[in-house]
């Protein structure tokens, strides 16, 4: 016997109930990466997922990136840009563009998309409400030729040194959904450009979030045969980095996941932001959608 369309829809809605109960009043930080943006339909689907979570009693917080969008604006302005160790070398002219693109246009685009659903979003960056403070990143790399460790001077690239959750705690009790750009001040008065994954990890850690979701452009962490790994412990994740299965941009992402879990986040999920409604499928369905990393 085949189920009528009505019955199928009703079943789906009923199946979401235990997950709505599980996440009621819990904080879910969603990192929305620049590669997952750009498609209008996907953008609307993302905004409606976040809106639905808020409406069902969850406390969603969006942290967004915008690497490719910063890249195109720098190109339009004829400012050269390069990456070292996965981070954008950021001089004064670059940090001004980074702040303009991240805390300006991209932030407000996401806010507008969520507001169009009838929910209320508020656009912020680390500067608002003294939320995040940064200091100059102290990143080192091993020179492959000499095998000697060298310190990278990345200019105004920052590392998060403090998160004050006063504003976010206040917003959690309100109708507002925070949408945060990864830009923060330093005690030295400079503005710092922070990798959006790292920034999302720091926010989730400070809030002891129940879930931290990373929306990227692959289904999750893949094994040696390219198959999706549904669940990983911190130690298994470390082994996959050590044996080279996890490489490139996935290394800092998984390292951020590990740090977030060690800071008190219950579980981190890496999933494909190019799949429509990826957030809802992950949070409100049985199968989940990507790779769950837990302690
Ligand atoms: N084991 C792995 N599983 C999945 N992706 C991997 C793995 N190892 C390396 N990668 C690479 O990591 C990329 C995701 O990292 P990154 O490009 O930094 O994401 P984003 O720009 O979304 O933050 C994937 O597109 C893939 O090329
Ligand atoms: C220091 C550093 O590299 N900052 C990033 C911030 C944006 C970002 O991380 O965006 P995605 O998540 O889309 O990659 C940058 O300038 O590109």
Automatic annotation (TrEMBL):
<protein>
    <recommendedName>
        <fullName>Acetylglutamate kinase</fullName>
        <ecNumber>2.7.2.8</ecNumber>
    </recommendedName>
</protein>
<dbReference type="InterPro" id="IPR004662">
    <property type="entry name" value="AcgluKinase_fam"/>
</dbReference>
<keyword id="KW-0055">Arginine biosynthesis</keyword>
<dbReference type="GO" id="GO:0005737">
    <property type="term" value="C:cytoplasm"/>
</dbReference>
<comment type="pathway">
    <text>Amino-acid biosynthesis; L-arginine biosynthesis; N(2)-acetyl-L-ornithine from L-glutamate: step 2/4.</text>
</comment>
<feature type="site" description="Transition state stabilizer">
    <location>
        <position position="31"/>
    </location>
</feature>
<feature type="domain" description="Aspartate/glutamate/uridylate kinase">
    <location>
        <begin position="26"/>
        <end position="272"/>
    </location>
</feature>
<dbReference type="InterPro" id="IPR041727">
    <property type="entry name" value="NAGK-C"/>
</dbReference>
<dbReference type="Pfam" id="PF00696">
    <property type="entry name" value="AA_kinase"/>
</dbReference>
<feature type="site" description="Transition state stabilizer">
    <location>
        <position position="253"/>
    </location>
</feature>
<comment type="similarity">
    <text>Belongs to the acetylglutamate kinase family. ArgB subfamily.</text>
</comment>
<keyword id="KW-0963">Cytoplasm</keyword>
<feature type="binding site">
    <location>
        <begin position="66"/>
        <end position="67"/>
    </location>
    <ligand>
        <name>substrate</name>
    </ligand>
</feature>
<dbReference type="GO" id="GO:0003991">
    <property type="term" value="F:acetylglutamate kinase activity"/>
</dbReference>
<feature type="binding site">
    <location>
        <position position="88"/>
    </location>
    <ligand>
        <name>substrate</name>
    </ligand>
</feature>
<comment type="function">
    <text>Catalyzes the ATP-dependent phosphorylation of N-acetyl-L-glutamate.</text>
</comment>
<dbReference type="InterPro" id="IPR001048">
    <property type="entry name" value="Asp/Glu/Uridylate_kinase"/>
</dbReference>
<keyword id="KW-0028">Amino-acid biosynthesis</keyword>
<dbReference type="GO" id="GO:0005524">
    <property type="term" value="F:ATP binding"/>
</dbReference>
<dbReference type="InterPro" id="IPR037528">
    <property type="entry name" value="ArgB"/>
</dbReference>
<dbReference type="InterPro" id="IPR036393">
    <property type="entry name" value="AceGlu_kinase-like_sf"/>
</dbReference>
<keyword id="KW-0808">Transferase</keyword>
<keyword id="KW-0067">ATP-binding</keyword>
<dbReference type="GO" id="GO:0042450">
    <property type="term" value="P:L-arginine biosynthetic process via ornithine"/>
</dbReference>
<feature type="binding site">
    <location>
        <position position="193"/>
    </location>
    <ligand>
        <name>substrate</name>
    </ligand>
</feature>
<keyword id="KW-0547">Nucleotide-binding</keyword>
<keyword id="KW-0418">Kinase</keyword>
<dbReference type="InterPro" id="IPR001057">
    <property type="entry name" value="Glu/AcGlu_kinase"/>
</dbReference>
